[in-house]
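User: Show me sequence and structure for the first protein, then do the same for the second.

Assistant: Starting with the first protein.
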Amino acid sequence: MPAQGQALDATEPSWPRLGGLNALTLPEYTALSGAQLELFGLLQEDTALVSAITGLAELSRHAPPAPAHCDLRLDQFLVHEDKLYLADWEELRMEDPARDVGAFLGEWVHRSLHAIGHSSQTAAEAFAASGARELGNRLPFLQAFWSGYQQAGQPASHGLAYRATAFAGWHLLDRIVAAGTEQTRLSALDRASTGIARRLLCSPNAFRDVLELSVSPQGAPS
């Protein structure tokens, strides 16, 4: 956290780093694991996905900034004596609030996919359907979060919901990168999750309602 009276960092987070979707530097290449290199190879060959991520970054760059954690995961929420705390503020900065909202949503999508497991023999549509059922069991958490966000007076607009849905997909990719640190190959679950992340990033409007991101009347569309 910054010292009292000190301005928050206003620079863009290092991730997503769009340059890495076009080419990796030699130091980056040698530092990545086999699984991470495999993932970047998949991303770099997917022009539609690269375009979606580039578009998200551009929309986010022009969104009204707010103090944002920028590294949000459920395991960073701690409960002590019935009080909820959020840890690890190293990436705190002024940023698009959709980044944190999307990370929270993406965490539940991530947990839903990992709850069902996956093998190389599982059809993509069957995996997506099972993931949707698991996510349905967790929707009350998403609904409570989104409702509380709006009741707190935050500017919950259609534009924010759109970007947050896309950032949920980006969060899935972020979790795959983190999990692949010591892996030589992407697992079947990682590859399937990459497909779900792609859908969220490329078609946010199609999944916004699935994540229950309705906007209250006071949240004017942007």
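Switching to the second protein now.
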Amino acid sequence: MSTKPKIISIAAFSGGGKTTITKKLGLELKSTKELFFDDYNFENAPADIIKWVNDGADYNVWNLDPLLSDIEEITDSKEVPSYILLDYPFSYKNDKIKNHIDLSIFIDTPLDVAMARRILRDYTESQSNEIQKELNFYLQYGRRAYLEMENTIKPDSDTVIDGTLSPDRIVELILKEMRGRGL
């Protein structure tokens, strides 16, 4: 009889380090499966994130069935890993996913650092006018989505870790938190 894997959720702003930390944590833990939110195409997801935030950011309007299906498939498989690591921005806010999460981590990266990382990551081959458009959009609209996470997801997480620390130090702190919780 197999045991249930422990599910660790890693949340952060875009550019906050979710993917990097999820991958590094996976290298430190034995027997893991990693799932990345951005790898999914969620049907009927809000087409306009800013409108979704302005309308109250109801996390249950997201149909996360593909992610849930993968979690359940891994949990029910013959070779169940010890951990499922979720690169997942919603912490406990989606009712279909929340009961599966054993520990929710929020990587608290200052907004300017997250934006700088996004530009470096997403605009390496871009011209300055494209970067300026992105920055203008962020200032006029996008910052609201970041603040939504800061005001809703951060306090909903089990633990908050400083996103300016090195990835190795962040992983070290997550492992310490997991040990302290018997995970």
